[in-house]
Amino acid sequence: MGSAEVGDDVLDGDPTVQRLERLGAEWLGKAGALYVPSGTMANQIAVGVWARGGDELIALADAHVLLFEAGAVGALHGLQSATVAGHNGAPDLDELRARIRPDFIHMPTTALISVEQTHMSSGGRVVPLASLQAIRELAREHQAPVHMDGARLANAVVASGTSARDWAACADSVSVCLSKGLGAPVGSLIAGDDEFLERARVVRKRLGGWMRQAGVIAAAGIVALESGVERLAEDHRLARELAALFDERAGFVSPPDQTETNLAIVRLVDFELAGQPMDAPTLAGLLGEEGIGVMALQADVLRFVCHRDVGPSDLERLSSALDAILGA
Ligand SMILES: Cc1ncc(COP(=O)(O)O)c(C=O)c1O
User: Which atom of ligand 1 is nearest to the CA of 41?
Assistant: First the structure.
């Protein structure tokens, strides 16, 4: 990062940003990519390109773009959303078909279908290729574009052996986070064809996401893409071990065979501490006091994340912290 060649990306271009964008576009098999500050902004740029106020976006009810982006599709773009149920991140195709609006002046236009790979809320599950291909086909029949929130697409690549290009071919635009498991401190990419990129540049400008001498941080993005992908297999292994560590203890359900990537979902079932029922936020707080960072995703669900800065010794620390909390 310290030796990155920089320029003004807003004026005549930053060579390191451009290199990262070319690298990302090539990895995804898209015409180009834009470097942006966050995964949220990458998704919202795609939404801004594909939809206009009054249009409708279809996604899983627990998709990040609807649930964890502070209402941005409504607040920034004036959209309404239609939600579908799914199984482990794979949207129900019949329900999706039923949600696509007919061409009728009284109804909103289905402007965009958004899918998520891997699916965060289900614990980083890999959405099957056949499911995404079927959605792409259905969307084509209705001239609706598909956006893929690929914040953790690299994890899906490593877990499945399917290339980023093959996953990305299921969508018209794809966002990818260089932070998260890939290990860059900051930054995401949003990729698509030339027409998409032309409009995406305008939306990025409107959102204030066009950065000047950004080569300093883009350099870390290059390292993330070049050296971070294969390494994810270690995170996946560790997440499975972490899941097993909880699954073996009474009061927790966390099947290792459902831990496909770097997220381990631990459900508290009738979990008690000193005879008192205990919820996930309270346990997360107790683990926090022991120096273990974990998010309570729901009242009875903890989400652990394995990434570049977490190793086997941290698992031992977690095990000891649990023993200490449980009085084992
Ligand atoms: C599936 C998914 N999409 C998008 C994002 C947003 O990324 P960021 O936190 O960089 O805005 C996240 C963040 O956790 C995510 O899990």
Answer: 11
pLDDT digits (tens, 9 = 90+) for 95-124: 999 999 999 999 999 999 999 999 999 999
Verify whether ligand 1 is closer than 6 Å to residue 157 (CB atom): no
Q: What is the pLDDT of residues 274-301, one digit of tens each?
A: 888 889 999 999 999 999 999 999 999 9
pLDDT of residue 232: 98
pLDDT value, residue 328: 66
Q: Is the CB of 116 under 6 A from ligand 1?
A: yes
Could you tell me if the CB of 151 is within 6 A of ligand 1? yes
Domains and CATH numbers, the chain: 15-227 (3.40.640.10), 232-326 (3.90.1150.10)
Q: 149 in ligand 1 pocket by Cβ < 6 Å? A: yes
Tokens describing residue 74: 């409504």
Q: Please work out whether the CB of residue 63 comes within 6 Å of at least one atom of ligand 1.
A: no
d(CA 237, ligand 1 centre) in Å: 22
The sign of the dihedral angle between the CA atoms of 308, 132, 69, 45 is: positive
End-to-end CA distance of the chain: 45
Spacing, Cα 65 to ligand 1 middle (Å): 8
CA of 295 to the centre of ligand 1 (A): 14
The dihedrals phi and psi of 303, each to the nearest 5 degrees, come to: -115, 115
Rg of the chain taking only CA atoms, in angstroms:
21
For all residues of the chain together, what is the average pLDDT? 96
205-253 tens-digit pLDDT: 999 999 999 999 999 999 999 999 999 999 999 999 999 999 999 899 9
What CA–CA distance (Å, rounded) separates 36 from 238?
30
How much distance in Å is there from the Cα of 180 to the middle of ligand 1? 8
Indicate the pLDDT class of residue 265, thresholds 50, 70 and 90.
very high
Answer whether the bond into residue 162 is a cis peptide, omega within 30°: no
